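Weekly modeling sync, notes
Attendees: S.R. (lead), two postdocs, one rotation student

Agenda item 3: backlog of single-chain predictions. S.R. asked that every request posted to the team notebook include the full sequence so nobody has to chase files. The rotation student volunteered to paste the first one in as an example of the format we agreed on. Action items at the bottom.

Example entry:
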Amino acid sequence: MVSMSEIVGVGACVYDTLILADSFPAEDTKLIAKGVMQSGGGPCGTGLVAAAKLGGNCGYIGVLSEDSGGKFLLNDFRKYNVDTSNVKIEKGGSFSSYILINESNSTRTCIVYRGDLPPLSLNEQQISAVENAKILMVDGNELSAAIKAAKAAKNSGTKVLYDAGGLYKGVETLLPYADILIPSEEFALGFTGEKSAEEAAKKLYSQFNSDVVVITQGKEGGICYDGKSIEKYSAFVVNVVDSNGAGDVFHGAFAFAQVMGFDYYKSCIFSSATSALKCTKLGARAGTPTYTEVIDFLRRNGYEL
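Predicted structure, as returned to the notebook:
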């Protein structure tokens, strides 16, 4: 049976181990952790969960391991109502990360192991899932499958949202398929060679002919460029508990906002608020708020979408 999810994703789903500590340790020393927890992570996987928690109809297209990490990730998707009918289970080590959360500085430091699972090879059912969706989310991981999915999306009218957070090898082959291009400022400046986010947005827009370029700038908010004007959106000030996954949540919230019919700038505001609320709680996925929580938060801050 073909999944009819409105938002589907091809990209990274990561088994995260979060380690809470008062500070970052000096090299070759010991540090007592305040707590350890497991969480689902990865740009695409977490973005889909965020959209699902907001009320979206979402499905993941990918490969997960039969190991304990893979079983956790599969159950985590199901827990948050993300469709897994297009997930393949294979032998191999899970894509994993170890994240030290420094509570004194509200920062997070990651060590990533990419695992040794075979690459995703899309079948007819998975292609149909892309063709029947409204938005395809990609993040530069599973690059070959992401390009194949993006081509199918272009032919069927499915919008491609590219979470461009990392300058992975070969990403320039995926960029031309992005209808909604949302790079980090680090990616945008590094890829274009420009000195400012504004100039980078204009260059990316003209080079790849996206519908919109949104550059995220962390605590500074970000900018939205639709080919006509650049609009600045703000970050919201909150008590940060865990910033890990905030960017992934932003992208998932943006996909959801687009399905809801918000324009690009309102989608930025909505996504910024969703990302801020996520930072007030521990866990990239567990911390994502509901739609009602986001709307209430926006109203308290003077926004009506």
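Discussion: group reviewed the output briefly. The chain has a mean pLDDT of 95.
Action items: rotation student to repeat for the remaining queue; S.R. to check formatting next week.
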